[in-house]
Write a structure and sequence with these properties.
The chain has about 30 residues and is largely without helices or strands. The protein has no helix or strand. This is Type IV secretion protein Rhs.
Length: about 30
């Protein structure tokens, strides 16, 4: 996966908030 850490749904993001499904900018693909 291009060597970057993958954020999972429920993990805390760098913005200090939980990841929500369908959130822009957190999709990996």
């Amino acid at each position: 996966m291009s060597g970057k850490p993958a954020a999972r749904q429920g993990d805390m993001t760098q913005y200090g908030g939980p990841i929500v499904q369908g959130s822009a900018g957190v999709r990996i693909g």
